Amino acid sequence: MTRLAAILLLLFVMFAIMKPKSFFGLPTWQSMAIQFPEFGLMALGVMLTMVIGGIDLSVVGIANMTAIGSALLMLQIAPTGSDSGSGYLALVAAIVFSLVVGALAGALNGFLVAKVRIPAILVTLGTFELFTGIAIVVSGGKPTSGLPSQYGEVMASRLFGVIPMPLIIFIIATVVIGLLMYKTAFGTKLYMLGSNETAAKFSGLKTTSLIIRTYMVSGTFASLAGLVMLANYNSAKADYGSTYTLLAILIVVLGGVNPNGGSGRLSGVVLAVIVLQVLSSFLNTFPHISNFYRPLIWGGVLLLVIVVNQWDKRGNLTRLFRWKGNAS
Q1: Would you say residue 320 has pLDDT above 50?
Q2: CA–CA dist 303, 162 (Å, integer)
Q3: What are phi and psi of 162, to 5 degrees?
Q4: Strand-pair partners of 159
Q5: Residues 57/112, Cβ–Cβ less than 8 Å
Q6: Surface-to-core class of residue 112, CB atoms within 10 Å of its CB (0-12 exposed, 13-18 middle, 19+ buried)
Q7: Which residues of 237-254 are buried (b: 16+ CB within 10 A; e: fewer)?
Q8: Which pTM does this prediction carry?
Q9: CA atoms within 13 A on the CB side of 193
Q10: Mean of the per-residue pLDDT values for the chain?
Q11: Which letter does DSSP use for residue 291 in this model?
């Protein structure tokens, strides 16, 4: 947390000095508030699966599949030229459909991990391809657009004309995750399962049910991210957000969640989301830095964070500082 806070402060200072117009402009911050909930919501779900010692690589596939399904459902209920009543009915139906399908997709992941005993990384890699394939078949590989205007009016609106709806959704989702993790028995059980699955079983925890429910929450949050993407782009396509899987994992690891499970805090993950969004927006202010470099940067940072965390865990940093103190 302290390191992340220091990095964020440094980014703010660099941003303010090098690009003061962008940094002090309201549109920059509104743009950030619209962008980061897309991958931030996915990261929240991935965080829960990683706390129990698993992982969810299917979040982008779930997001795009549910977004395309929701878009097609809205077009059936409220085709072009429909009245506003049909548009709002389509909006409600799309949200319910997306969240239910996302939860079912997560339940499939959880069932394969918990009951069939397939490693989570293999299950979710396979279901990512499955869900993406379903999205391509259903949409024909083309963008699904022409949504009812009511969807954008609600999901892309701005509270008081300033605060974007995606940010509000992310804040509500963060509060819900916080309550689940720290105010319910469910959260306590997650940490117990992640710390020692065998001990958790002997203590009477229903580990199968817990794993399935955890992946269901992750799938639900991925589908919520799909709804946000649908509002931001006013269309859905099977390959939207292709880099978000890597970004979500980077956020969770950078936020201090142990990839082996058992530890990690929500506050660290939220701070990591903000750090990466500020860094991304800062890079956007340099036209000569191509977006094609983003995956390279994110991948390099992820490897660096993992190496540093492993090195630190073994006590190497402590020994290094102790040696320097003795040498001086």
Answers
A1: no
A2: 37
A3: -125, -50
A4: 163
A5: no
A6: buried
A7: bbebbeebbbbbbbbbbb
A8: 0.88
A9: 25
A10: 87
A11: G
